[in-house]
């Protein structure tokens, strides 16, 4: 007992015992503007204020290394910080935060300006090292919840669980499998009406403990490298994600076609089969934009080749597909077959593009093509070579690159620790580079293909690290065609959204196994509300195209994909928003209803918002009734316009033909007429649905050509649309940008506004409007429907000029 107390005492004062030691007392402090340089008894550190709400903490045992990150692309912004020192502590004050760094021993605590604890080190444990493993322990706050961390299984609230980040190939993974394919070491803590984010920017294996097996602390740590974390405060979780993506960057606008329906399978070949799929989609009037080729398009799985038997003239095939409105995406794997005479390999070898053992021989591992070398995407040489090779796909008419197996995955999954990577000029081992490999492959594919195409490429990646959103969309790998996998998929996409990745999808229908008809239909309905909608299935499974499950299924699926296409103006505007503020399209209810305990219950944790208007309640394909939770506010049933009061749960009958979807009162939803693909022009009228509510909303409507980067030069059409229930008006704001909208008219469809007088004023001279008091079709995917009795949906059509227009009601 005595000995035990002695050990604790040593730890508390920061002296080392055996291999465990904490930082110890602060022995010197240097203040450099918004930065503190600290020396402790057993560590050195740097605390930097990045903005009034962001503080970075760096700690290491001996000295701080090169300040380099694959994730963070933006540095601190000029921030006023008051620094106050006493013998006990150093206090930093920003407009929003008080940070107290205790000296004896070193201990960090973050407070609101009025003194409420947001997050603090656990007294006595703080930050400590076991050999080279470093961990920071945080006091577990009463009622604290933890959400986010990217592609992580489990419930929405991760309290009581622990997770590891080590990117892994997971064929047919179980719904409790951790780690999966990608690393996003960023989570959000919630307690007492406060929220904060912690981003641990460390590429080594990292571990997070959200109070698993302990009631004392949450913790995060790494198997090497520095303790290097960003604490991010925010009034709303949205603000925290925006700050986080301010550091790690945001998505660029993807091509519009990539928002359309994507038909995949492992694998479509030969060319006649690809054309049959394309034709059938058109014949059956299933709107679609993409067809994806899996590994069988290659010559013996060799990257950057075509199997000439199966695909004799890829460019001619993609031209035929393009005529039909289809874009082609091809898979690329990092493994490059080690084969004499294979030009790709020989050029890579000559350029020194591959990762190597310490004795300078290439690391060779086995994957689809057999024994392979692997590009070093963490160095200029490797990327330059890859970017050149990938550019050839542009002349083959390819529009999208699907990066797979980039964890790195090799057969046996035992890549040695001692393989070396360039690491931007400071060579590092596999242990340090593993988790950033996928990110850098996606980056290289993006950079190379963007340049070759000279328009927006579509890039998809299976693996990744924080910052992936700058280059790529992500999907959640080899799931199973099982009910709880579909629901897990929903949570995974929401978690990825919390980690700043807006463009996300899953294998809709399931990769391994085969779904029941009910599950298939439900999954396709939910997939229609995923940012990236990809139907995919494995090599020995039943076909998964929309016509594979019988006529009724086809009809329902057609309805939902059609709805997705009619919602494209809404989705594209939301994508634009994500490029500006990093916010996801698929939004867990925790974003807007953070302090409502009901939304974390397992019965409701899968409900999500698609943009800010739609609430989707996913259920399995086999349930006859479902319990749906309606958070505060009013909700319109998408199909009937019936208004449901929030703050209650309701039992709803479930049918295969309808996915429960509700529209939040006060929402604004732009829609277009049905098209079969994004290159087809819709009619010249934009339908703008507005749903009456006590609280209004703002919607930034955004349009551009959908494929080029001209929008960066001002070639866009953007206006703020405001619904103000207090002033009883809807304002179409003045248009910014030089792009001419494809819509000549805007037809407002007003839901639940009664039948009082409507006037449109404030318009530019010469523009016209007409007020039509007729019901219009609601979102009923089965076809036209009338408004419920006593409930009117009224329309007003205005000319879509660039001037402001105000509709009063
Ligand atoms: C991996 C991918 C899967 C793909 C298969 C063949 O398992 O995750 O989507 O179909 O490889 O390339």
What's the short version?
The protein has 809 residues and is of the alpha+beta class.
Secondary-structure arrangement, i.e. CATH architecture of the domain at 2-248: Sandwich
**CA distance, first residue to last residue:** 77 Å
Low-confidence stretches: 1-14, 762-788
pLDDT averaged over residues: 93
Q: Give me the oligomer status.
A: single chain
Structural class category: alpha+beta
Sheet with the most strands? 9 strands, parallel
Strands across the major sheet, in which order? 33-32-30-27-23-22-21-35-34
CATH C-level category of the domain at 2-248:
Mainly Beta
- The total count of helices amounts to 12
In this entry the ligands are: alpha-D-glucopyranose
Approximate shape: globular
Total E-strand runs: 53
What is the CATH topology classification name of the domain at 2-248? Immunoglobulin-like
Radius of gyration (Å) = 27 Å
Strand content: 25-35%
CATH homologous superfamily identity of the domain at 2-248? glycosyl hydrolase (family 31)
Helix content: 10-25%
Protein name: DUF4968 domain-containing protein
Domain Glycoside hydrolase family 31 TIM barrel: 252-573
InterPro entries: DUF5110, Gal_mutarotase_sf_dom, GH, Glyco_hydro_31_AS, Glyco_hydro_31_C, Glyco_hydro_31_N_dom, Glyco_hydro_31_TIM, Glyco_hydro_b
Family: Belongs to the glycosyl hydrolase 31 family.
